[in-house]
TrEMBL record:
<dbReference type="InterPro" id="IPR006616">
    <property type="entry name" value="DM9_repeat"/>
</dbReference>
<dbReference type="InterPro" id="IPR022041">
    <property type="entry name" value="Methyltransf_FA"/>
</dbReference>
<feature type="domain" description="Farnesoic acid O-methyl transferase">
    <location>
        <begin position="14"/>
        <end position="141"/>
    </location>
</feature>
<protein>
    <recommendedName>
        <fullName>Farnesoic acid O-methyl transferase domain-containing protein</fullName>
    </recommendedName>
</protein>
<dbReference type="Pfam" id="PF12248">
    <property type="entry name" value="Methyltransf_FA"/>
</dbReference>
<dbReference type="Pfam" id="PF11901">
    <property type="entry name" value="DM9"/>
</dbReference>
Amino acid sequence: MITATQYLETEDRLQYNFFPNRSGLCQFRVRAPNDAHIALSPSAAETTPMYEIFIGGWGNSKSVIRKNRSKPDVAEVPTPGILNEHEFRGFWVRWENGTISAGNEGEGSPFISFTDYERVPIEYVGFCTGWGARGSWVIEQREGGGPIPAAYTQGPPSHAANVCWVASSNGQVPPRPFVGGEDNGEVMYVCRSNLNGALLPGKLLQSHGNGYVAWGGKENPVYEYEVLCDFGGTWVATSGGNIPSGSLTAGQSEAGEPLYIGRVVHDGALTVGKVQPSHGCLYIPYGGKELSFKDYEILVQ
């Protein structure tokens, strides 16, 4: 993944600096005492329709989402001390299927969100400060203007470089997810989630509103998870504890053993789960249970 870092200094004048962005996600860090403003717009200008997210407004006491620069605000939450004039604070902004949300760097759940019946085509993101504040910004961007999705994290040590996991929740699917299987005609994505001290690869079905991981003999629903995105891997047939070269390390057991991503056809569904080499099998979450298989496919780069 080729990335570029944009450095931006904003004055105390509420004038947006726009960057092209059609990805649905934006990640940045900002150092400011208050009022870090982000605009989501169809063009490189303040226009109608448009959304604005004010982080640390009203003396760094609350954050809001505003549509078309009009009051009343469509969403408002108390966020005392969310910004700091002496240190950079990281955030992400996401827009997808009419939902606008913002969260803290490294956290999958937003601290503010708003769902609009009008689907506004967002193509530019703007940044500015005001109300007595100047700001320093570090904006991570993909080559071509798209940002690195919010809360991308690197997994445990892996053969695969530049593997990206995007934090999400409640059935939401980030842009450019990796498709791992299908169930009754519905696309199944590869996800992972923390459970009982382990980081477990599993499956995500958007219609269910959550992901699932296999652990403790059960199919465990997870409502906060990470989705594998921007990945060009392939599936290789294997069996037992045989781990082919280049297999993608996607998690670890509670004992620290690396876990891999596997899949198998069961009951007519091509289902994703975890490969645990010491157990010599693939485990899938299915039908409320944790099911094991000696023959399966494993994901490699």
